[in-house]
Amino acid sequence: MRQNQNENTKAKYRIILADDHAILRSGIKMIIEKKEGLEVIGEVSNGQDLINMVKAVSCEMVILDLNMPIVNGIEVLEYLHDNHPKIKSIVLTTHKEKVFLKRALSKGAKGYILKEESHDSLLSAIHDVRQGKRAISSEMTNLIVNDYVSDLSSSLSIDLLTPREKEILALTANGQTSKEIGERLEISSRTVEVHRSHIREKLGLETQSELIKFAIEHNLI
């Protein structure tokens, strides 16, 4: 009987919680330990205590907030990545800004979950990360996908322009008139107007300010 108990204890997947809000930690612990096979073996309220605990005890996963006193979450992730690469980490945070997600992932986080999400989302993230997958909040995933689509669309837009159209766009964004551009490029002002029309049509831009912004974003001026 004692042997079976030891085997069950050994089989537990060991997790450390790090958050400076004790009530939140207590709630997270209850959620996690309702799931068979998971065990919270330690709780800390700051990043330095988390680093100390990781040095002292053996665990498979750390769930941490980014905002912690003494040593913040990003610094802890960097420490874990460099010194305990086998420990998987999930960020549980209120930060919805893409910069925090990107920094956390670049420092080795395998999961990024928002605190406002459901209990099942956290448990699902633990399961996925445990299996070697990444787990990112659907809201944050949508932000990244939208950024990618926007960048892709922008890249395709500039590629639609001919070298001459790029040249005319740059001069237009610099405030030159069709006549001035024509004289500089040794073409008629009418030809410049045709090019400008094609540029607006290809890019879906109408106003001068939109053209200037596009030219700046693509290093044309």
Summed up:
With 221 residues, the protein is an alpha/beta fold. Helix content is 59%, strand content 13%.
Could you list some keywords that capture this structure?
single chain; 221 residues; alpha/beta; Rossmann fold; Arc Repressor Mutant, subunit A; 2 domains; six-stranded parallel beta sheet; 59% helix; elongated
**How many angstroms separate the termini?**
77 Å
Assembly state of the chains shown: single chain
Largest sheet: 6 strands, parallel
Cα radius of gyration in angstroms: 27 Å
Structural description of this entry:
- This protein has 221 residues and is α/β, with parallel strands linked by helices.
- The protein has two domains: 142 residues, Response regulator (Rossmann fold), CATH 3.40.50.2300; 68 residues, Orthogonal Bundle (Arc Repressor Mutant, subunit A).
- The chain contains eleven helices and six strands.
- A six-stranded parallel sheet has the order 2-1-3-4-5-6, with helices on both faces.
- α3 runs parallel beside α4 and α9 crosses α10.
- The radius of gyration is 27 Å and the shape is elongated.
- The chain starts with a helix and ends with a helix.
- The N terminus is likely disordered.
Topology:
Elements: H1 2-11, E1 13-18, H2 22-33, E2 38-44, H3 47-56, E3 61-64, H4 73-83, E4 88-93, H5 98-106, E5 111-114, H6 119-130, E6 135-136, H7 138-159, H8 163-173, H9 178-185, H10 189-203, H11 208-217
Parallel strand pairs: 1-2, 1-3, 3-4, 4-5, 5-6
Helix pairs in contact: 3-4, 8-10, 8-11, 9-10
